[in-house]
Amino acid sequence: MLTAENLACLRGERAVFANLSFTLAPGEALLLTGANGAGKSTLLRLLAGLLRPAEGTLRRPTPLRYLGHDDALKPAFTATENLAFTARLIGAPVTAIPRALAALNLTPLARLPARVLSSGQKRRLALARFALDGPGAAPLWLLDEPTTGLDAASVTLLGPLLAQHRTAGGMIIAATHIPLPLDAVRELAL
Ligand SMILES: Nc1ncnc2c1ncn2[C@@H]1O[C@H](COP(=O)(O)OP(=O)(O)OP(=O)(O)O)[C@@H](O)[C@H]1O
């Protein structure tokens, strides 16, 4: 269970949001929506533990996985090596790498250095990290505009990955400007 009570966050001394409360139960998904600058990325960073709330309390499950705007890939590493790096960090087996590549339709690109991938391919590689440990292994996924740069077919590919995570009891909080392939999703308008 994730519980946020009366959260407030300041950035540069300005209140981005205040009195923000919500809960999320296992298997649930929450979309953060709102205009540019509304505070979606700020809330995700706060939930990820990268920012501290100025007020309020937050209880969230761990471990969690966070994808920001930046793909955070190592440009000289191949797609496989990038996933191997993450697998070591999170304790996933190397045998999960081919499955993660396949989940985002990256198998033909496995040996290319990340620097030569297109922006949509880089985003898919960043998302492939979420397929490294089994669905639900990290209970909370925080996704900041996960579909940026993705073509329609790639957005569709995300559907099963997100659904399997929720079926296994995982939770998803995603900031987005476009509809995501998620069923029965709640919305938090900022
Ligand atoms: N480091 C910072 N210092 C000062 N203000 C900041 C800082 N980072 C963000 N802000 C401000 O906080 C507000 C919320 O920004 P945030 O990135 O969370 O918005 P967002 O809803 O994710 O927007 P977008 O849809 O454009 O991605 C904005 O007004 C932004 O200018």
From TrEMBL:
It comes from the Bacteria. GO terms for molecular function: ATP binding; ATP hydrolysis activity; transmembrane transporter activity. Residues 2-190 form the ABC transporter domain. Signal peptide: none annotated. GO terms for biological process: cytochrome complex assembly. InterPro entries: AAA+_ATPase, ABC_transporter-like_ATP-bd, ABC_transporter-like_CS, ABC_transptr_haem_export_CcmA, P-loop_NTPase. SMART domains: AAA (SM00382). Keywords: ATP-binding, Cytochrome c-type biogenesis, Membrane, Nucleotide-binding, Translocase, Transport. This is Heme ABC exporter ATP-binding protein CcmA. SUPFAM superfamilies: P-loop containing nucleoside triphosphate hydrolases. Pfam families: ABC_tran.
